[in-house]
Amino acid sequence: MFVARRLVLAHFWVAFIGFAAAILLGEWQMYVRSPLHAWVDNPVHYYRSVTTHGTVMAYVLPTLVAMGFGYAITELALKRPLIGLRWAWAGFWLVLAGTLVAGGTMASGRATVLYTFYPPMIAHALYYIGVVLVVVGSWIWVALMSINLRAWKKDNPGAAVPLAMFGNVAGAYLWAWTSVGAAVEILVLIMPVALGFKDTIDAGLARVFFSWTLHAIVYFWLMPTYIAFYTLVPRAIGGRLYSDTMGRVAFVLFLVFSMPIGIHHLFADPQVGAGFKFVHALMTAMVSVPTLLTVFTIVASVEIAARLRGGKGTFGWVKALPWDNPWMLAVTLSFVMLGFGGAGGIINMSYQLNESVHNTQWVTGHFHLIFGGAIVSMYFMIAYELWPQLTGCAPLSARAIRLQVWLWFIGMMVLSMPWHYVGLLGQPRRMAYYDYSAPALQAQAWTVTMSAAGGAILVVSAAIFIWILATARRRGTEAALPFTFSVAAHPSARVAAPLNGFALWVGMMIALTVVNYGFPIAQLASLKETSVPAIRMGVR
Amino acid sequence: MSGARWSIVALVAITVVAALVGFVWLPSAHGDFTAKGVWDMICRAAGVPGKWGDGSAPAKVVRSTSVVLDAAMQKAGSEQSIGRGATLALNCTMCHGAKGVSRADTPNLAGQYPEVIVKQLIDYRSSDRESSVMKALAASLSDADIRDLAAYYASLPKPRNVPVTDMSAVPALVRVGAPMRNIAPCASCHGGIERKPGAPWMESMPKEYLVTELNAFARGTRRNDALAQMRNMARSLTPQEIDEVATFYARASDAGEK
C-alpha cells in the first residue's frame, strides 16, 4: 500500500471498537429478557440498548468497513496511491463525529427510537444529526471512489477495471443512491419535528422513504463480503476464480435490483397499494439471481482449488480442500449461514408468506444470520487479510482465526435458530421482556435462554477477534508480501464494455427506482391530512 | 452495445410482467377489486381508490374529546398569564386548596402540566368529561382564562412522593405493566420512564380520586381519553390492582397542605 495505511487502520479500529461495545449490549439484551434474569426494571433501558446496538452495528460498523476496505482496494487493486487522502480523512472524522454525537444522545436516553427510527417516534435532534454526519462522511468516500476510478481509467484507456475495484465502486454508487431515501426522510420530514417547528409528521410517507434505504442498505453491507468472495477467497485457498465476468454481472445486478424493492418491508402498511407491494416482492426475488450466481461461481472456484490439489471424482474433491486454511473454513461457514438466511429471506419477501412472520422474532433471526453471520464473518477475514499490509505484522495465527470463526458460526446459529423457531410460533420482536409465567409462553422460555447462550459465544468470539488484531504486532514484524487478488481461470484481456463501467447500470437503477417508488411517494406526498402527532421519546 | 440493449429490454420486460401481475392479474381474483371495472381495479391496486368510502357519513360519531394537544400548550406561560391565572384561581381554592393541594380528595393542581389542565377544563366545559360541579365552573371560562389558570398551576411546585430507593417496592404495574394483558407500565406515560403529552403528574394525588377515576375509566363513564388509552388500561385491572397503584401514587408527600 502507498499512503492509505493509517487511514484504513483508523477506519477499521473505530469500526471494531464500536462493534465490540455493541456486541456487549446485544448480549445484555438477550440476558435480561431471558428467564435467567428478572424483568428489566425500566424497559426504556432495554430500548436504549437496542437503539445503540442497532445504530452501531447497522450504520457505523459496515459503513466504516466498506470505506476502509474501499480505500485499501483502491491502492491494492489499482496499484497507485489514493487520490484525495485529505478528503478521505475529513470523511473519517465526520463519521467519527457523527458516531460520537449519536452515541452520546443514545446514551443519555434521548433517542430510544431503535435504529429504524420510525416516526411518529421522534428522538432528540442530535441523534439524527449524528446519523446524517455518518452518511455525509460516507458520501465523501463515494466521491473519492468515483474520482480514483475515473483517474485510473484515464491513465489506462480501454483496460479492464480490476474486479475488486469494480465491485467496490458498484457498492459506492449503490450506497450513494440508497442513502438518499433516509436522507430525505430525516432532512425534510423528521428534522422540522425534532427541532420543534412542527408537532405532527406524515408517518406513512416517512416509512416509504425509509424503506428506500432500508433494504438496499443491506446490499451495501454485503458488498465487501462479495468482493472478498470473488477476489480473495480463490487466491487464498490456492485456486482460480471460475469467472471474472460472473463477478461483474453479480455486482451490476445488485446495483440494479437492490434499490427498488424496499416496500417489501411495508407489506403490513396500509398506505401503499397492493400492486406496488407485489412488484417490489417480485423485484426482491430478482436479488436471489446474483446471490445464486455468486454461490455457483465461488463453489466452482473452490472446486478448481481442490482439483489443483489432486481432488478427484464428482464429490471426492471436497476432501482435497485445504480445510486448515482459515479462508476455506470461513467461506464455508459463511455460505451455510447465507443459505439458511437466504432461504428465510425468500419467505420474508413473499407477499403472502410474510404475513406469518411479519414483526416476529423470525425477522431478527433472519438479519442476524445474514448480516451478523454470513457478512460480518467475512469482515473478520478481510481484516485478518489486510492486517499484515496495514501494520507490517507477521502472518496471524491460523489456529486462533479458525477458533474465532468457528465460535462466531456456532454462536450465530445458536442465537438465531431459536429466534426463527419462536418467530414462527408468533413471538413478537422488540420486546423488553416476556411474561414466562403465562402458560402460552412458558414452553418457549428455553429458546430465549438458548439465544442468550449463543450471544455469549459470540461475545467470546468477538473478544478473540479483537485480541488477534490488537496483539498482531507482538508476533513480530515482517515486510508485507505484495498483495494479490484472485486470478480468473480464463483471464481474458477484454471485458465487455458495459461490464467495465457503470453508466448503464446506474441509469437502470435510477429508472427502476422512479418506476417503483415515484408513484407511491408522489401520491402520499399529495394526500392531505395524513400527518399524525409526533411522539417525543426521552421526555421524563 | 447489443449487450446493453438486451439488458434494458430484459429489465423493461421484467417490470412490465411484474406490473401486469401485480395490477391486473392478482387483483382480478378479488371480488371487491373487480366490482367497478378494470380501471378502478388498477387504481385500487395502486393504492388510489376512485372514491374513498361510499360517501355516506358514519352512522354514529363517538367523540371522546375536542382537544388536540399541541406543543404550544405544553410551554410555560408568561408572568402576566401566571398572574391572571392566580387571580382566577381564587375561585378554585375552596376545593383544590390555596396552593393547588388540598385534603378534599380533589386532584392536586400544583405543578400540574399546563396541557393537562387546559384539556380537562375544556372537556368539562364541553361536557366531554362529566362533573356537575366542574361543568358549572368551567362554563364561564374563556379559552384565555383556561390558558392562564393552566399557566398559574403549572408554575407552582409539584407535590412529590418520597423517593423510591428499592425498585421492588414499586408495583409491577407501574414499572413494567402486564404485557400479556396489554397493560402498559403507568410510568411509560405518567413520568418515571417517559412522559406523554396530556398524561397528568400523579405523585401525591389523593388515593380516593385515583380509585374513582380508574373505576370511571373501567366502566366507561369517563371517556375523555382521546384514544381510549386509559379505558383500555383500566378495564383489565382488578379492584386490588387499582387499589395498589392508587396507594403507590398517593403515598406520603412532603409538600402542600396535607
Which key phrases capture this entry?
heterodimer, A: 540 residues, mainly alpha, 17 helices, B: 258 residues, Cytochrome Bc1 Complex, Chain D, domain 2
Please characterize this protein's 3D structure.
- The complex is a heterodimer of chains A (540) and B (258).
- Chain A is mostly helical and 540 residues long.
- Chain A is built from 17 helices and four strands.
- Chain A has helices at 5-32, 43-78, 85-107, 125-155, 163-194, 203-231, 233-236, 244-257, 274-286, 288-308, 326-349, 354-357, 361-391, 398-425, 439-442, 445-470, 503-526; strands at 121-122, 200-201, 532-533, 535-536.
- In chain A, helix 11 (326-349) packs parallel to helix 14 (398-425).
- Chain B has three domains: 11-45, no CATH class; 71-155, Cytochrome c-like domain (Cytochrome Bc1 Complex, Chain D, domain 2), CATH 1.10.760; 168-250, Cytochrome c-like domain (Cytochrome Bc1 Complex, Chain D, domain 2, Orthogonal Bundle), CATH 1.10.760.10.
- Helices cover 49% and strands 0% of the residues of chain B.
- In chain B, helix 6 (114-125) runs antiparallel to helix 8.
- The longest helix of chain B is centred in the first third of the chain and has 27 residues, at 2-28.
- The interface between A and B is large, with 45 and 43 residues.
